[in-house]
């Protein structure tokens, strides 16, 4: 209405624009967390003369630094791997070498996820195209343990080079090897080393603690005092706690399979589902009693030979499986109807199959 063109929000890509944005708005919480991990990795590399990077094999670009907090494809941290060899084998599983994977949604460009109500960043995992996380795949064969996926294929792109997991590898080198190929070492390996002004703004507390150039010859005790350790899953970051409050959930509540803390809506849905299952069980019990009464009141058949096996009523079969799974595995109760549809007219075979699967005596359920 004023005749002036609308202002469009742009993401700066040049150093001058990034510097102006950081000066005006500051670094994003997720970006700060990523930079802290990057600085921790650089400090560790300088102190141990072992530089680890997650790089793009097509362009050679070093996308992220690998350090103590980095996560391997097997699900264990870099600090839980053996550092005596360059392969960095895992000390807790069959993983034979360290393969870095993204740890936060911002690392794959999914920055909007952390803004969703109830989203728990600590339970986020990089996923395959089969929609299962890297931790659900075998660290050696890369096969999925939850479905028929035969090979992990990352369902994401690196935010630094816009390439997938398959176009990356994890490289470990010494300082001499990196200098031989012209790669940065020492102070130059620190994040944002080529932009001191941006580095000073992002790591504002560096000046109050210690000059980062002295970390190469010192241990990490001073650096660890500067940054707080990562929050455990039971105590999420402040932004996540606020989102839980807004959504009615609790930060220390139960985390569901989607990585969200269950709030009032989820609890109400689960309660309604439990009531519906209990009501259905009661209806089946009533139908069973009516059937028994009709059979008892019916006249007895004389001189009749039964040549076929007596089938089991679907309602009886449902109740038997409901009571059995309640004590063995309650998560399978919701699949009883599907089983009955698959074994329609063969309910006795279904019960005998369940007996064999769980090692029960014949007739325990089907008698």
Q: What percent of the residues sit in helical stretches (DSSP H or I)?
A: 25-40%
Gyration radius, to the nearest Å?
30 Å
Shape: elongated
Secondary structural class: mainly alpha
> What's the count of strands?
5
Could you report the average pLDDT, rounded to the nearest whole number? Answer: 76
The largest sheet has its strands arranged as 2-1-5
Order of SSEs, N→C?
Answer: HHEEEEEHHHHHHHHH
Instruction: State the helix count.
Output: 11
Low-confidence parts lasting 5 or more residues at pLDDT below 50?
1-8, 205-231, 243-253, 301-308
Q: Could you tell me the strand content as a percent range?
A: 5-15%
What is the terminal-to-terminal distance? 81 Å
Strand count, sense and barrel status of the largest sheet are: 3 strands, antiparallel
Structure explained in plain terms:
It is elongated, with a radius of gyration of 30 Å. It has 367 residues and is mainly α. Helices cover 36% and strands 6% of the residues. Helix 1 (15-25) packs parallel to helix 4 (196-202) and helix 8 crosses helix 9. The longest helix has 34 residues, at 264-297. It has helices at residues 15-25, 29-48, 175-180, 196-202, 206-209, 221-226, 238-247, 264-297, 314-328, 336-342, 347-357, and strands at 51-56, 62-66, 71-72, 100-101, 168-173. It contains eleven helices and five strands; from the N terminus they run ααβββββααααααααα.
